[in-house]
Design brief:
The chain has 183 residues and is α+β, with helices and mostly antiparallel strands. It is built from four helices and ten strands, in the order E-E-E-E-H-E-H-E-H-E-E-E-H-E. 24% of the residues lie in helices and 22% in strands.
Length: 183
């Protein structure tokens, strides 16, 4: 596992368009989430210890904020490049963890490139106009949920829903590097 840090996409960047299939072949695009008050795009995968450590907390935040009109979408950039990220393994993981959001496959890695995602999990928070508010981590203790002192993603979402800016400088996500397909 190679540790990587997210590239800081410029605040205010328009969310790049995407059109990707979920685990059953239904296609989702940016427009699929048009009614959401905010959109969280998460590049994640099955094999990364950082992504796995955060999964339950990501699911909990997604469930909590769905009630407030926030949509979440998870995109796996490693489907064709890592055995644990195969379509069958993605289906197993989503069912096992009860993902309350679409889990999409970026087989060609085009969306991953468009968002300039560098790691898993790489988390982007967009406002209702789909302008980037920030990239952020889920919280301040990826290894141990019992030691969390600041719930970064939830605080950012609270600020977005209130029409304001995050109450702190967001900490960039870190995790496993994207497994890029060979050209």
């Amino acid at each position: 596992m190679a540790l990587a840090y997210s590239k800081n996409l410029a605040k205010g960047t328009q969310a790049p368009a995407f059109s990707l299939p979920d685990l059953e072949g239904k296609t989702y695009s940016l427009e699929s989430f048009a009614d959401a008050r905010a959109l969280v795009v998460v590049f994640t995968c099955n094999h990364c210890p950082y992504a796995k450590a955060y999964e339950d907390r990501l699911v909990a935040v997604a469930r909590d904020y769905a009630k407030k009109g926030v949509a979440f979408v998870a995109i796996n950039p490693n489907v064709l490049t890592h055995p644990e990220d195969s379509l069958d393994k993605m289906r197993q993981r989503a069912a096992e963890k009860g993902f309350p959001f679409p889990y999409l496959r970026d087989d060609a890695q085009d969306a991953t490139r468009a968002y300039e995602a560098m790691c898993t999990p790489d988390i982007y928070v967009f406002d209702a106009a789909r302008k980037l508010v920030c990239q952020t981590r889920i919280d301040d203790s990826w290894q141990d949920a019992s030691k969390v002192t600041r719930r970064d993603l939830a605080l950012v979402l609270d600020a977005v829903l209130a029409g304001g800016a995050p109450p702190f400088d967001p900490v960039m996500p870190m995790g496993c590097s994207i497994k890029w397909a060979k050209p």
